[in-house]
């Protein structure tokens, strides 16, 4: 026999934990592990930038991403975790997009090695096949001139909108 007050407390705690988990995920637009399949396939255009061609493990998304390799060198075959978020605040509350060195609050960026801030400038949809059952999207983001195209199943990109500001968070992973 469980007293009614204990039952209410237990239910409240479960709801609180669920709410906490949702807030932790708030602002996350996309997340997956990517494998670098090619680097600068059309030749290197800039000294400090490389264009990566990658494929994700879980969702089989295609990624083309420009990276400043002077500050974040990458190699063919490396794997990295990529997360796209609308805020760096861990509780998911919106931020103003400006970095403040005096702000000592924990940030989602603290767990990553490479961070960029940009804007979604284009989203294309393409129906694949004659039955049009496979709907694919391509989302394009500019990070101050460094470009990204994330392409794949529309269900994985439903959180992206034109003119939306997003942070790109990257961290290499050992495998």
Automatic annotation (TrEMBL):
Identification of the protein by name: DNA-directed RNA polymerases I,II, and III subunit RPABC3
Family: Belongs to the eukaryotic RPB8 RNA polymerase subunit family.
Matches recorded under PANTHER family: DNA-DIRECTED RNA POLYMERASES I, II, AND III SUBUNIT RPABC3 (PTHR10917:SF0)
Organism field: Hydra vulgaris
The keyword S-adenosyl-L-methionine is assigned to this record: no
Pfam families linked: RNA_pol_Rpb8
Keywords: DNA-directed RNA polymerase, Nucleus, Transcription
Stated role: DNA-dependent RNA polymerase catalyzes the transcription of DNA into RNA using the four ribonucleoside triphosphates as substrates. Common component of RNA polymerases I, II and III which synthesize ribosomal RNA precursors, mRNA precursors and many functional non-coding RNAs, and small RNAs, such as 5S rRNA and tRNAs, respectively.
One Gene Ontology cellular component: RNA polymerase II, core complex
InterPro entries: NA-bd_OB-fold, RPABC3
Biological process, per Gene Ontology: DNA-templated transcription
SMART domains hit by this protein: RPOL8c
Keyword Transport annotated: no
Subcellular location(s) of the protein: Nucleus
Lineage: Eukaryota, Metazoa, Cnidaria, Hydrozoa, Hydroidolina
GO molecular function: DNA-directed RNA polymerase activity
């Amino acid at each position: 026999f469980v007293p009614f007050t204990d039952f209410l407390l237990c239910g409240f705690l479960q709801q609180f934990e669920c709410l906490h988990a949702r807030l932790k995920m708030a602002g996350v637009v996309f997340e997956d592990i990517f494998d670098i399949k090619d680097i600068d396939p059309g030749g290197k255009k800039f000294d400090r930038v490389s264009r990566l061609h990658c494929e994700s493990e879980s969702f089989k998304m295609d990624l083309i991403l420009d990276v400043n390799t002077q500050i974040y060198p990458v190699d063919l075959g490396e794997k990295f975790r990529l997360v796209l978020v609308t805020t760096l605040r861990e509780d998911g509350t919106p931020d103003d997009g400006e970095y403040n060195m005096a702000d000592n609050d924990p940030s989602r960026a603290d767990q990553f090695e490479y961070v960029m801030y940009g804007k979604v400038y284009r989203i294309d949809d393409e129906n694949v096949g004659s039955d049009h059952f496979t709907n694919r999207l391509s989302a394009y983001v500019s990070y101050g001139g460094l470009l990204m195209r994330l392409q794949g199943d529309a269900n994985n990109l439903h959180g992206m909108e034109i003119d939306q500001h997003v942070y790109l968070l990257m961290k290499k992973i050992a495998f």
